[in-house]
Amino acid sequence: MHDGSDSDFSPGEAVVVRKRRKGIYILPNLFTLAALFGGFYAIVMAMNGRFDMAAIGVFFAMVLDSLDGRVARMTNTQSAFGEQMDSLSDMVSFGAAPALIAYEWALKGLGRWGWIAAFVYCSCAALRLARFNVNTHVIDKRYFQGLPSPAAAALVTGFIWVMTDVGIPGPEVAWPMFALALYAGLTMVTNVPFYSFKDVHMKKSVPFAVIVLIALGIAIINIQPATVLFGLFVIYGFSGYAVYGWRKAKGVRTSLISTSTDEPEERGLHK
Fold first, then answer.
1. Phi first, then psi: what are they for 64, rounded to 5°?
2. Which of 51, 118, 193, 196 lies in disulfide reach of 99, CB 3.0 to 4.6 Å?
3. Is 271 part of any domain?
4. Which residues of the chain have pLDDT under 50?
């Protein structure tokens, strides 16, 4: 007998279960948004002729980009949304921004050659990021396949930062800028292995001397930030070819993975 209470229901009555609405994690995405702002800021500064500040904006984005993934893993807040957001941010900060800054600073004077070099860099950054997303679950974590886009952006904008510091205008070094943009762009889409530093664990204890060396490194960078940082990324930007040559000489397979997880193994294509 029904007594009118809300707890009673007939056997044929449907039970509606509300699904919990999905949200996004704030902390790692704040770092990603801040990195995106760094790239946007760099473009705005280049439009205003402040190329030194434009370069600093890209380096600022690079630091934040290196933190968002680590923060997500440390706080167990990884998500598919975060991965996609990170890729879109990288495309702006390390793809479009360096290409536009280089074009405004030096490449514009080369006419069609200038915008071709800028476009090659920008398109290679997009291809590199797309390939990274496809291969993210099968790649050897110790290495990047091709020059990572933040390092490529550091090569391009670091050169601009150094030249601006010493007072050399962009048009005077347009062709070196042209060559560097092509090198950075094309190296991103090669199969050359670049050390990823992902096997360095921050939670492990280290000798006291390591902390002293880190403090010394920070002090050296502060003496001439543009020159020191650009020098470090030049070394890293060529290190992959040294690793490639060493692996080739040792007879170790030089191709890390295939182009896509959905494609057959490409052992005979990338030696």
1. -70, -35
2. 118
3. no
4. 1, 5, 7, 9, 17, 20, 258-271
Name the domain count of the chain. Answer: 1
Q: Do 125 and 149 meet the contact criterion of CB atoms below 8 Å apart? A: yes
pLDDT tens digit sequence for 141-175: 778 888 999 999 999 999 999 999 999 999 999 99
Measured between alpha carbons, how far is 101 from 49 in angstroms, rounded to an integer?
9
Structural domain containing residue 174? 26-199
Angstrom distance (rounded) from CA 120 to CA 187: 11
Quick one: residue 197, left, alpha or beta (phi over 0 = left, psi -120 to 50 = alpha)? left
Helices (H) and strands (E) in the chain, counts: 9, 2
Token reading at 155: 């090569």
Tokens at residue 54, please? 């434009």
85 touches 65 (CB < 8 A): no
Q: Is residue 93 a part of any domain in this protein?
A: yes
**DSSP symbol at 264:** -
Q: Does the residue 19 lie in any domain? A: no
Pair 98, 46: CB distance under 8 Å: no
* DSSP H or E segment with residue 144: strand 143-145
Q: What is the pLDDT of residue 265?
A: 42
